[in-house]
Amino acid sequence: MIEQATEAFVLEARELLAELETLFLELEDEVSAARIDEIFRALHTVKGSGSMFGYTALSRFTHHFENAYDLVRDGQLEVERNLIDLSLSARDLMISFLDLGGDGPEAEALLESEDVMRIVSQLTGLTGQHENEAETKGATGTEPVQSTPSQAEQAGRTRFRVRFRPAVDALRNGMRPDLLLRELEDLGSTSVELDVSAVPRLTDLDPTDALIGWVLEVETSEGREAIEDVFIFADDADLSVEELGCETPLAETANTPSVDAASPAPAVSSEKTDPAARSVATPKATAMAKSESIRVTSSRLDDMMDALGELVIAQARLEAVSEEMGSPTLETVVEDMQRLVMGLRDATLSIRMLPVESVFGKFRRVVRDLSADLGKDVRLLTEGGETEIDKNVIDRISEPLVHMIRNSIDHGLETAQERTELGKPAQGTVWLSACQEGGEILVSIEDNGKGLDAEAIRARAVERELIDANAELSVQDLHQLIFEPGFSTAKIVSAVSGRGVGMDAVKTTIDALGGSITVLSRAGQGTRITLRLPVTMAIIDGLRVRLGDSVYVIPLSAVEECVEMDEAENLRESGRSLLQIRDETVPYLELEELFGQQARPEAGRRVVVVRVDGVRAGLVVDDILGQSQTVIKGLSIYHRDIPGLGGATILGDGRVALIIDVVTLIRWAETRRGQGPRKAA
C-alpha cells in the first residue's frame, strides 16, 4: 500500500513539474498573480508531499525554491529573466531528485553537489535568506525533541499547541508522521508528548494501524498558516492548532490531565478552532472537487482496449453466424450488439485520447534553450493544441517533432542580423499547429526562414548517387530527399544537427505509425512540414477485399472510391499501368504481383482508389467484401519486414486477414519500378 502511495506521489510530482515548466515560460509573456499562486502551490505540494513519502532531500531543496516564490507572491521580488532561468534549472534538479527514487546516499550526494549548491546560493542571493543548516538538515531521529531557542530567536515568536492524531489507516496509505514532526521542528522550537491512550494490548495490536497521537508546543515566528501547511496532506487526521497566550509551556505541564500520556488526548474537533479549522479543511474540499476524476495507469487502458478488440472480433463472428442462419430474431440481437459495441468502442477510444497540447507544451522549453544556444531570437506560436489524438500516437511523435523544430531553428531560421538585412523581422517564428481532417490528424511545423535550397539538395543527391545527374524530378520530389538516411546539405556539423540522422528518424517513426509527410518550402519565405497521422492505432474502420483465396483490409480513411476494372481503359505509359477513370488517368498496382501471389485473372475485378501524398492511385483486387471494424494486431516476426503490411486482424469466420499499409506499399512499388526519387535497383 505504501509503495502504491509513493508511486502515486512520484507520478503526481512529475506532472506538477511538467506544468511548472510551462508556467515559468508563460511568465516571460505575462506575470499574473494567478500564475504566481499556481507556481507557489505546485512547489508547496511537492515539498510537503515529498517530505511525507521519503523524498526529504527533494523537499529540502524545494524549500529554497518555494521561499523565492513566496517573496514574489508578496511583491518583494520581481520576476525577471534571471529568476526564470534559475527556476527552470531548479525544476530540472527536482526531476533529478525524483529520478533517484527517494532518500539515500545518492540523494544526499546530489543535495551536496556543486549544481545544487550553486542554485541554492543563487536563490538565497535573490531572497536574501541564507541557507540555515538547521533548516535544510533538520532532525534525523523521531525521538521527542525539546530545543531551547536563544533570547534573540524568541523575539517575535508565538507559541502554538498542536494536537495531531493520524487516521487509523494513515500508515498503510504512506503517511510518515515522523517527517511531519521534523517539518514542525524546522519552524522553531518544539516540545512533544505522545498520546498512547488508543494503543491496545499487544495481543490485539495491528502494527499497520496508526494508534499514536501527538501533542506539541511549537514556538515559531512563521505563524499559524505555516503550521497548518505542514499537515496540508493529512486531511483525514484529527488536528487542532491553538494559539497560546502566556500559558505555561508544555514541558512544565507535562503531567497535567490535558496532556497526560495515560489519558486520551482531548477530542478537539477542527471545527472548534475557527478560523484555523476552516483553513485546514480546505484540502478536504479540494480533494472532494478532484474526486470526479481518477488516475488510471496506461497499461490498464491497454488491457481494456485489448478486451474491446476481442469483443469486436466476437461480434464479427456473431454477424457471420447470423448471416448463415438467416434468423430474423438473431439479426435483431446482432444489430443491438453492434450498436452497443460501437458505443463502447467510442467511449473507450475517447478515454485514450489526449490533447496534442500535452506535446506542444514541451517544446516551449526546447525553443527557448535552443535559440539561446544558437544566438537566435526565436518565438514559438502554437495553434490547435486542443486537438485530440490517441495516447500511443502522442507518445511516439514527440521525438520526431523535436528533430524538426531543431532543424527549423538551426538550418531554417536566419540570425537576427541576417533577417534584418533581408528586410525580415529580427525575431524568427516557428509555428506548431494541429487539426483533424476525417480520420487523420495533421500536425504542421512551419518557420519563416530561408526555405529549402532545391538545387543544393539535387547536387547532394547526385553526389551520393541517390539520383542520376540528368534525372527530372519535381521540386516536391527533391524535398522528399531530406528524409533519406544520412542526407544533409549542411556544410558544418553542429552540436544540434547536420549529420542527416534526424529527418530519417522522423520518416521512420511516421511510417511506422501509418502516417505520411508532406513538405512545402519556398526560397526566402520558409518551410512547412506536415505530418498526417491516424487518430488511433487500435481499432480502425476497414474495407475488406479479396485477392484469390486471401482477404486483406485497406484502411477506410485512405479509400476515395471503388470502381470496376475496365480492361478497355487500361493503358501503359513509362512502365506504369494506368486506368482511365472518367476524365482522369490514375496509375494502379496489381496487388497479387506485389505480394507474390499466383495470378488467377478473374472477371469483374475491382479497383480501390486511394490517395497517398496527395496523389491518387488504384489497387486492383478480385472482389470487395464490405466494411467492418478492424482490430489491429501486430505482425509476426516472419511478416514484420514485408513492405506494405501494417498489421493483421481476425475476421468473423476466424481467418486472419492482413492489413495493407497503403503509404508504404505505394512508395515501395514506386521504388521497385524506379519511378521514385531513389534510383532503380
Brief synopsis:
This protein has 22 helices and 22 strands. It is of the alpha+beta class. Mean pLDDT is 78; it is low at 131-154, 250-290 and 675-681.
Please, could you describe this protein's structure?
The protein is an alpha+beta fold. The strands form five sheets. A six-stranded mixed beta sheet has the order 14-18-19-17-16-15. A hairpin with a 2-residue loop joins strand 16 and strand 17 (584-590). Helix 3 (56-73) runs antiparallel to helix 4 (81-99). The longest helix is centred in the middle third of the chain and has 28 residues, at 298-325. The protein is flat. It starts with a helix and ends in an 8-residue tail after the last helix.
**Class by alpha and beta content:** alpha+beta
Mean of residue pLDDT values? 78
Radius of gyration: 33 Å
> What proportion of the residues form beta strands (DSSP E)?
15-25%
Count of helices?
22
Q: Could you estimate the helical fraction of the residues in percent?
A: 40-55%
Give the overall shape, derived from the CA principal axes.
flat
Strand order of the largest sheet: 14-18-19-17-16-15
Number of strands: 22
Main sheet record: 6 strands, mixed
- Termini, distance in Å? 61 Å
Low-confidence stretches: 131-154, 250-290, 675-681
